[in-house]
Amino acid sequence: MTFPHATTPTQLMLMLALVLTGRSSAQTIFQETFDTGVLSPGWVWQTDAPVLVTPDASGSGFCVGKESLNDMPPPPGEIGSFMFHDLPYAPGASYQVSLYMRVETTSGTLPGAGCYIGWWSSSSLGDDVGVFSQNADWEFLQSGFGVPAAYQPSPTLRFGVALVVANWAVDAMAYFDNIQVDAFGFTLPAPVRLNARAWLDGAFVPAQERMRDDLRTAGLIPTTDPYGNGTAVAPTVLAITGDNAVVDWVRVELRIHPENGGAVASAAGLLQRDGDIVAADGSSPLGFYAAPGNYHVVVKHRNHLGIMSALPITLLSTPTGLDLRLPGTAAYVRGAPFTDAPRKVVGSWVTLWSGNVAPDDRLRYTGAGNDRDPILTAIGGTTPTAIATGYTNADVNLDGVIKYVGSGNDRDPILVNVGGSTPNAVRIEQVP
Known about the structure:
Elements: H1 9-20, E1 27-32, E2 43-46, E3 51-53, E4 63-67, E5 81-86, E6 94-105, E7 113-120, E8 129-133, E9 139-142, E10 158-165, E11 172-184, E12 192-197, E13 204-205, E14 210-211, H2 214-217, H3 235-238, E15 246-255, E16 265-272, E17 276-278, E18 286-288, E19 293-301, E20 304-308, E21 313-315, E22 320-323, E23 344-346, E24 349-351, E25 362-364, H4 373-378, E26 387-389, E27 401-403, H5 412-418, E28 426-428
Parallel strand pairs: 12-22
Antiparallel strand pairs: 1-11, 2-5, 3-4, 4-11, 5-10, 6-9, 6-11, 7-8, 7-10, 12-17, 12-18, 13-14, 15-16, 15-19, 16-17, 19-20, 19-21, 23-24, 25-28, 26-27
């Protein structure tokens, strides 16, 4: 028997212990390497935001750093300096976490850093399974298997992995890398299913009450989703015409907490001309590997502002409907001062706002990071009348042609959607 990832005697002993105790059948339910250089969706934190730095434990990639609170005791209501990611919870399952950690300080007093699996609320952080380090050098740590307390996720209670740095240290940083969570006795929940509908402003034709499928007609829609889910579509699905013709890929997410949290589960779906969002087979409802329950539903597109249902939707193994094309289906609105309209009103319908060419959380026609300049860059950067083709965020109206000026150009919709008469206005996405 070989252990290809075991590089130290300690790791070898830990892995051998897993086999001897019957834990070798554990399945990996979460991994985070940070090697993309961008914090992946789903992480939330308290106090200062985490930072991605180099080098990582291997000396070649990225790791994440979290700064301690520079106060003792912490202010009322704060439970420390930490970052958190949801994990799937199964009653009775045992969990194990492994990762690399190190800590540093300029004060001479070495702080502590920890990684814990358990339940978190706004006033407490559980530590049912965890490891702790005070090593200034990278240290590989692996917990034993532990069975967390039996609760159920709710809007005020969530289950996941937390990275913590001591809240009493001054000018201290903790660094974390290559996190892996394994579970034993864990059964992946049966999919909950959703029949969602939405319009994309860029492709919507009000007179037809349908969207154009120009990208599909031009053969530009990729066979694997552009959001990193790894979902593939068969060419036969992209050959379908009529109301069920594919307009583009979208990403749909489920959240328990609208403001403070990332996706509990996500899926890449195909958006059809009539607004249906379906699975990659072209007809089935979207499925999510999440426990039956109440979730806020988020719909995102690569160059539109995302939207989220204002109310949690009950999702079960039988499909639940959600029509985000209707003004009467309430969409989430952030707190002041970020209270822009979550969707664009087009006749008796509402659509996702188009024009998020530089994908972030806002539409900008002028200024730093605006969405207009990338269109000019996409057609060559020097000749505004030039035209390009392709599957790109610069194609705001989703017709497969990138134009900066002239009829059907991709620049004007951005100006219209920030307000038309005020080029320096900014429109904020209403998905926190």
